[in-house]
Structure formats: structure tokens, C-alpha cells
Design goal:
This protein is an alpha/beta fold. The protein is about 35% helix and about 15% strand. It has helices spanning about 15-25, 45-55, 65-70, 70-75, 95-100, 120-125, 140-145, 175, 180-185, 190-195, 200-205, 255-260, 260-284; strands at about 1-10, 35-40, 60-65, 105-110, 115, 135, 170, 210-215, 220, 235. Strands 3-2-1-4-7-6-8 form a 7-stranded mixed beta sheet. It contains 13 helices and 10 strands. Helix 1 (about 15-25) runs parallel beside helix 2.
């Protein structure tokens, strides 16, 4: 069994469907996949679309309603106040995998929802981790992510050390359950904590020296059409150009549209347009 965890809200239902479908399409044994979907406020229609993955491919789907469990808000309150406001709080869910997943699960592959899996995950999932707690790919623009404007030094991180993207992580759950992220950050000054990039910084800081570096093919980030020649196993649309944007110029865009299916692709675009108009009307 391959255990896969994802976290998303209703605004990301269709990309989640596409990521899950790409996994099922590129595996030899989709019936051996088990998805643990940590979600917020899914509409019945969107939940049904995602659940169809189980019916169509035989995969097992475990929906985990974050709000019903009342875990996210209370736990986040214990974390430092961060200046950034762009990301949805659902990104913190991956920090609480130990509380949300069955304690019998010894290993899990955490995946973001803006991925395109292009080859079987077996070599990644069943790899030897050599005692490391997490396996992940380096963040390509890690110097800017770590230091920000003018590459000003931060005490929590050194640009001489590796820094990893948290969008694809193979996790040893035995070690992960033992991590208290709030306690691990307790010694840092408030001004330093205020600069943190949400959970990705927290994972890199708390598991420093315990993250195994993966080959970039397992998380090719911010992919452009020229990167298609690299034949990556996992494409990560980590920057703002997403394959469901009309104007975007990203790798495998045409294939991704059919991965999401024409029906859901156009439905998702309409829903995004409606949300955007409603936001504009509220601002006006």
C-alpha cells in the first residue's frame, strides 16, 4: 500500500482531482493507493468529483475534515505570528500528520495539489531513507526564500546549508510524530519568527540535518515548456503560472488540461472567475 497525504480547501478541488488522477494513471496498481485528504469546506459536488477517483481506479480515499476535528485553528494559535498573509492556513495541516493519520501508518508521501505525477511513485515511496526523517528536493530559489529582500542574513537559516521544498515529502511517520514544532521554534526571537515562510520554514528548521536530498526529477518546480525534455517524474507548478490559467506558459499544459478532464477544467475556470468577480464587488 502507498499512503499519500494531501491538504486543500474547496478552492483547490479540481487541481487535487488532477493530481490524484495523474497518480492513478501512471501507476501499475492503482488499487494499492490510499489517499488521505485533509480538507476544509468541500461542497458535496466537489467531494463527489474527487471521490470518483476511487470508483474509476479502485484507489482508497480517506476524507479528513479538518474543521470538524477542530485541530487547525487551535494549533496554529500556538505558532509565531508571521508577516506573510498570502497562503491559506490549510498549508499548516501537514505539520499535524501525526494527529490526523492512523498511528499504524509508518510512512507517508505528502503531496501538494498543484502537481502532475508522470511516472510510478513506487521507486520514491519504497526507497531506503537511511534513517532520515524526511526526504525532499531542494528549493531552486532557496537563497531568496531564505533571505528575502537584498538577501539579508537570517539567524534561523544559513545559505550555506540545504533548504528543501515541502510540496513533495516522503516522511518517516515514527520520527515525524515525535516532533513538537511549536517547542522546536521556542528558542527563536519573535523578529526572526515573523520572517518565517509558513510551514516550509518550520519543517526545514525543525528537521535540519534530518532531511534526505532527492533528485530534482521528483519535484521539478516552476516548470517551463523547455523543461519537458528533462522528463521529470513529478512536475510542480509551484510559482504563480498555473496550468489552469489561460495566459500561463508552463510545461505539459495541454496534457494537464485533459488530465483534469475538459469537464472539470472549464467548470473550475468558471468557478474561479465567479470568485474573482465577487471579490472585486466586495472591494468596490
Amino acid at each position: 500500500m502507498i499512503e499519500i497525504a494531501m491538504a486543500f480547501d474547496d478552492a483547490f478541488w479540481a487541481p487535487t482531482y488532477a493530481t490524484m488522477r495523474s497518480i492513478c494513471l501512471t501507476t501499475h496498481h492503482p488499487g494499492q493507493l490510499r489517499f488521505h485528504l485533509m480538507h476544509r469546506a468541500l461542497t458535496p459536488e466537489h467531494m463527489a468529483a474527487i471521490a470518483s477517483i476511487g470508483r474509476d481506479y479502485g484507489a482508497t480515499i480517506n476524507f479528513i475534515d479538518i474543521d470538524a476535528l477542530n485541530i487547525l485553528e487551535g494549533r496554529i494559535a500556538a505558532f509565531p505570528r508571521i508577516r506573510l498573509r498570502r497562503l491559506n492556513p490549510i498549508v499548516y495541516a501537514r505539520l499535524f500528520l501525526g494527529d490526523l493519520l492512523d498511528p499504524e501508518i509508518a510512512r507517508v508521501l505528502y503531496l501538494d495539489s498543484d502537481l502532475f505525477i508522470r511516472s510510478p511513485l513506487d521507486p520514491l515511496y519504497f526507497m531506503e531513507m537511511g534513517g532520515y526523517a524526511v526526504a525532499a528536493v531542494l528549493q531552486p530559489d532557496r537563497m531568496h526564500v531564505i533571505a528575502g529582500k537584498d538577501l539579508r542574513a537570517r539567524k534561523a537559516f544559513s545559505m550555506a546549508e540545504p533548504y528543501f521544498n515541502a510540496g513533495v515529502m516522503l516522511i518517516d511517520m515514527v520520527q515525524y510524530r515525535q516532533m513538537d514544532f511549536a517547542a522546536g521554534l521556542a528558542g527563536l526571537h519573535a523578529s526572526e519568527l515573523a520572517q518565517f515562510y509558513y510551514d516550509q520554514d518550520m519543517i526545514n528548521f525543525c528537521f535540519r540535518g534530518r532531511i534526505l536530498e532527492l533528485d530534482m526529477r521528483w519535484n521539478l518546480q516552476n516548470p517551463e515548456p523547455a523543461h519537458e525534455v528533462l522528463n521529470p517524474s513529478i512536475v510542480h507548478y509551484s510559482a504563480n503560472p498555473k496550468p489552469w490559467f489561460v495566459w500561463s506558459r508552463v510545461a505539459f499544459k495541454r496534457t494537464y488540461r485533459h488530465l483534469m478532464t475538459n469537464q472539470y477544467y472549464y467548470q473550475y475556470r468558471r468557478e474561479r472567475l465567479v470568485r474573482m468577480v465577487r471579490r472585486c464587488l466586495r472591494l468596490g
